[in-house]
Amino acid sequence: MTKSEKYKPFDVADHLEGLDDVATYLEIALEASPEDPTAVPRALGVIARSQNMSELARRIGMSRDGLYTALSADGNPTWATILKVTNALGLRLELHPAA
Q1: Which of 34, 39, 46, 70 fits as disulfide partner to 29, beta carbons 3.0 to 4.6 Å?
Q2: Whole-structure pTM value
Q3: How far apart are CA 86 and CA 29, in angstroms?
Q4: Residues 6+ apart with CB under 8 A from 35
């Protein structure tokens, strides 16, 4: 890299192009969540940023800032918020037998 070259920091939100990408990213976060309970809310925050955060907040009845905060690394969203966000994104959380 030369002095004149500048690189934009990598942001997963820039690369989530469709519902399949979004679902895969959330599945990865779910797999990581036993070691990191913030993985799913943070992943939903990234997914929300890849969409229209303001429109998503409006659809679930929250302010944009409130949603952004809830889904940040320091956020602590309720289960109801997580379900509202996933539903508004067109996703459904399901459980299946592990065996």
Answers
A1: 39
A2: 0.82
A3: 13
A4: none
